Amino acid sequence: MNNYANYAYYQDTYKGAVLDAASFDVYARQATVYLKLQTSNRVDDNSIPDEVKMCCCDISELTYKADKARHSGAASEKVGSYSVSYESNADIDKKLMSESYTSLIAWLGTTGLLYRGL
Fold it and tell me: Number of helices (H) and strands (E), helices first, in the chain?
């Protein structure tokens, strides 16, 4: 399975700067699987629309940031009168799903790829 976007597209067109090439490949694969599920696999792999590629890049970054948050532990930290709060993995996952769906609707909402009817 090929990813819907490659690293060159991520850098040059999406203008992404968060992920390196190796990380992008991992997260773009996860984003591609999510997009295939949400579009009922209607994207033609031989002619991938820019909206799909942009959405793939966007969701790749969102997934990376969620993974980073899972491993950092602290959601916020205060130095004066030291205070730390933690975000649960469930909250991080819920936020990722919400942000991914928002990206999906923003990029693909007018393409017909999300249509669930006959």
Answer: 4, 2
